[in-house]
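$ run holo --ligand "adenosine-5'-diphosphate" --emit tokens
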Amino acid sequence: MVKDCQSVWNNCLHSIKEGVGEQSYNTWFSPIDPIKLENNVLTIQVPSQFFYEWLEEHYVHILRKVIHQELGPEGRLEYSVIVDKGNEKYKPFTINLPNNNKSNKPKEQPREEPLNPFVLNGVDLSQQNSQLNPNYTFDTFIEGDCNRLARSAGYAVAKKPGITSFNPLMIYGGVGLGKTHLVQAIGNEIKDTLNGKFVLYVSSEKFTNQFIDALRNNKIQDFSNYYLHIDALIIDDVQFLGGKERTQEIFFHIFNHLHQNGKQIIMTSDRPPRDLKGLEDRLLSRFKWGLTADLQQPDLETRIAIIQNKMESDGIHIPEDVIEYLAYSVDTNIRELEGVLISLIAHASLNRKEIDLELAKQTLKNIVHDIESEVGIDFIQKTIAEHFAVKIDDLKAKTRKKEIVIARQVSMFFCKEHTNHSLKSIGYHFGGRDHSTVIHAVQSVNDMMQVDKRFREEMEELKKRFKMKKV
Ligand code: ADP
Ligand code: MG
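-- output --
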């Protein structure tokens, strides 16, 4: 059967969409056109060099996986990169580039794993592939109040793995707050500064799958033996071990052995150990032997520093007011913040526009819709302004006219109730007011609802327009 490039690519897209999430998919995969399929080489056209580099840096693994899925082990991917869009007279100018992960530093091992990855016969353990992303370092991990304890504990562990009392080190926190980055930074630091250490990063899911494979293939001996040789074991997202009894059993065994031998164990979880479900008590009690540190939502200063740092390292200049606007507007987590930055850069580079406040607002409008599901500050302001027959601009202005003040306070109240924005951020969106003004507004509205039945009913009606937001 002859496969055509469009249908092969469609199949690839299907798997990619599942793997990367909606927003990344729209930004990075929708704009791609498949252009030819020859000798198992699929060529796809991408809009710019930047785009190409981004795909190679961030999505090389998934691309490779889906290409192999679709075209078999011989399948390869090539890019046709649009260097100049051309015009009516001239065709676009493109160059072809192979698909190879340029972010792989030379010292890194090839990513492909050997057939039986667990056989260690005589190999130099420190040369094993640690499965670390070289970009996740302490240098690129911005310090702030939200992560100070976790970061400094992590740094101490990286300098003296297995020797400090932070063993195991357990980092927990919500999604996108930097757990994986931080624990990989520890791994990279150990590898870079201490010679001969066998460091391994593994997600709990991968660990589970490896274990199941080993069971199936009678390779449990090799599997345990491999893990027992590790000097620093980093195991990510241990909440996934919940309910997997046999995997927990072998992990318990590995944990004890490593711990007794002064080897370092580093773990992450999306919740504190006491809230982990389906984990055996004996394992949970082990987790408490060392140090548990959490990562919190980044505060405004940290968000600003993160944006500045990312932009600087990408060699992109963005104006102060844009940085401030973004930092105020996206206050959920760092992954989301990065997503917004990426889209912003992509918009700027695809449309050859300068990054300015206007573009930032436009970009955010598209995305914030996803982030905030139904209700955002803009929507609340618009609805309330209409209801009280005042102008949106007045809500943000200094005027102290009574009807405007009430509309403003009601809007702030709903922003607090129905969005994830912090008080500071809400104040910012109302003409740069202070967070105490927002607190005052919320209190006034509560007070008025207590004493004024009509007002309370009016508020109930308005509330129906703002579907409750799921966090
Ligand atoms: P988690 O594992 O907690 O879900 P990640 O470690 O994957 O989160 O972090 C999400 C993104 O945010 C990553 O790209 C990471 O580099 C970035 N990030 C998180 N914390 C920081 C930080 N303190 N400084 C710089 N980048 C950060
Ligand atoms: Mg993670």
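-- notes --
The first strand starts at residue 33 and ends at 38.
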